[in-house]
Specification:
By secondary structure, this protein is of the alpha/beta class. 13% of the residues lie in helices and 27% in strands. The chain folds into 2 domains: 88 residues, Phosphohistidine domain (Glucose Oxidase, domain 1, 3-Layer(bba) Sandwich); 59 residues, no CATH class. The longest helix is centred in the last third of the chain and has 10 residues.
Length: 157
């Protein structure tokens, strides 16, 4: 997954949203993160703003300052955390997007660098939120995670 380091402001919990560059309809903004190169203040109704402008100012609106907005595309889906990390969980121009269904595994495969994880928070609500933000014309999405547990999860829902 692609990741960009920025400096976040007014972000306490992870923000998950779809990237947009343009002014969207007021009622269509609630799941979007506005990317603007040189705005001084946030636009109303967006989840957050990503900008290059170091003089950007917002008292209580979440925003993140990055070195460059060139890596963002209209329709990408990202997570912004309070450390200023912007994680691309879906790239609209990629044919290689995937959802992580679970990290639980106790197989201890010798080639796997991951330690065994026996308990984790259920990722289903997060993944359903991501899917709702993906472009409707997406042809395919990979689903990854521990295979045996993945089968159990799929067939139990």
């Amino acid at each position: 997954m692609k990741q960009i380091q920025g400096t976040s402001y007014n972000i306490e919990d992870d923000i998950v949203g779809r990237i947009t560059f343009g002014k969207r309809n007021l009622f269509g903004r609630s799941n979007d993160i506005l990317v603007c190169k040189d705005s001084d203040k946030p636009a109303f109704g967006y989840l957050a703003t990503i900008t290059e402008k170091t003089t950007f100012s917002a008292k209580d609106k979440p925003y993140c300052v990055v070195n460059s907005v060139e890596n963002f595309n209209e329709g990408d889906v990202v997570v912004i955390n309070k450390k200023g990390e912007i994680i691309f969980v879906y790239e609209i121009n990629s044919n290689h997007n995937a959802l992580m269904a679970t990290e639980r595994c106790n197989h201890r495969c010798i080639m796997c660098p991951q330690p065994p994880i026996l308990q984790e928070k259920d990722k289903t609500p997060f993944n359903l939120q991501l899917i709702s933000l993906f472009d409707k014309n997406t042809q395919e999405i990979g689903i990854t995670g521990e295979s045996q547990l993945l089968l159990e999860i799929i067939f139990s829902h």
